[in-house]
Amino acid sequence: xxxxxxxxxxxxxxxxxxxxxxxxAIEDGRFVQAGGKAGPGRREIDADGLLATPGFVDVHTHYxxxxxxxxxxxxxxxxxxxxxxxxxxxxxxxxxAPDRHDWLIGLMEGVEDIPGTALSEGMSWNWETFPEYLxxxxxxxxxxDIGTQVPHGAVxxxxxxxxxxxxxxxxxxxxxAMAGIVEEGLRAGALGFSSSRTMLHRSIDGEPVPGxxxxxDELMGIGRACGRxxxxxxxxxxxxxIGGMDGRFRDDVVWMRDLSRETGLxxxxxxxxxDRSPGDWRRILDWTEAAVAEGARLRMQVSARPAGxxxxxxxxMHPFMGHPSYMELAHLPxxxxxARLSDPEVRARLLxxxxxxxxxxxxxxxxxxxxxxxxxx
Length: 377
Ligand SMILES: [Zn+2]
Description:
There is one protein chain. By secondary structure, the protein is of the alpha/beta class. The protein folds into three domains: 2-52, Urease, subunit C, domain 1 (Roll), CATH 2.30.40; 56-237, TIM Barrel, CATH 3.20.20.140; 309-377, no CATH class. Helices cover 34% and strands 17% of the residues. It contains 13 helices and 13 strands. The longest helix is centred in the middle third of the chain and has 17 residues, at 172-188.
């Protein structure tokens, strides 16, 4: 008699081989069978029509704050994630000068829409350098494995102060200081380094993530530091495919290719597709394929939904926030707002209007009704 038997699951065992259907048996906390027909179990779980996997590696998360107080990293564990990689998009909380805590929270809040109040209440800030941050993470248990990346935004502000935060050009000394911080973080156990190249990612004050406009010398200087450390993925948040920084796609693929070829390190970047520029992804894919053929290790991160935003009348964003008829009601408490919006005359006016927000972000996110769906609770 087994302790537990999972019956009739579609098993994806992590070997890279094809999925197959079978039973899984567990005794004394260990798998004793995966596939075929298992004998009876004290506890039996019917998994007909369900996948059984060792877990999922989520390469793109922003648990940098939550991981310092929440051992469960919810909700990722609920979804079957067993390894979460954080520190993406150039934002994170180390290194952190003592007078930069609120600024780093504002950066994360602006870029990732994580409430600053939760971060302020949750984080103890018992670190300053990146290695100290890793020590703080290691001092508490976690239900998931986590991987960290040294974030460009935090590094720039730490090495260059206000000039770095304001996206000013670095001196040679600044680049050397940033490279040293990144190398130190990697040697202490960081998985990689991350940066942002998209105008869609801004701090709560509207400033693009520090490092967004970083030039060749800065990026190569940091890349060589990763090379000296001997490991490290270079993760770049781009607006590739969604028509962000006009004309820069090609240049970015070129420096990523050069960096990967020179250091031998992998570069991972985001590719999305937008109806606004529906063919861009194909061109970018072609350039990337050519770079890979030339020996670069470039890998794309493609999300199932290009815009993964939670929109709602109580969230930071929703499709009507730029409609004049909505803006007249925006100050009302939720119940009163919904009552007014339910008025057929107000609804008709709202739907007939155009948003006064016409930026790239707005056309990508707010007017793309075909890509939205109601979230079921
Ligand atoms: Zn991100």
